[in-house]
Amino acid sequence: MRHTVFRRRMTEEFGEIRADTLTRDFVLASLGHRTADQALDAGMEPKQVWFALCEALEVPPERR
């Protein structure tokens, strides 16, 4: 998954404002106690970050 696809999926699932807030401020233990933006900046794969957010926010499997 490319970064652009990750951002698009975030916007589609959560809306533009909430997606931005979640990636910037929501800290996940599964990402090493980092936000999505921090995890991506550290080199984690966007797909791994996407699935971690989906799991934490209980996104239904059919939308992951």
- Give me the number of helical elements: 4
Instruction: Please identify the structural class as seen in this structure.
Output: mainly alpha
Shape: globular
Stretches where pLDDT falls below 50 for ≥5 residues? none
Mean of residue pLDDT? Answer: 96
Largest sheet: none
What is the number of strand segments? Answer: 0
Helix content: 55-70%
Order of helices and strands: HHHH
Distance between the termini: 12 Å
Rg for CA atoms: 10 Å
Beta strand %: under 5%
* Oligomerization: single chain
Would you write up a description of this structure?
This protein has 64 residues and is an all-alpha fold. Helix content is 61%, strand content 0%. It is built from four helices and no strands. The two termini are 12 Å apart. The model has no long low-confidence stretch (mean pLDDT 96).
Features:
single chain, 64 residues, mainly alpha
Condensed summary:
The chain is mainly α and 64 residues long. It is built from 4 helices and no strands.
Question: Topology of this protein?
Answer:
Elements: H1 3-14, H2 16-25, H3 36-41, H4 46-56
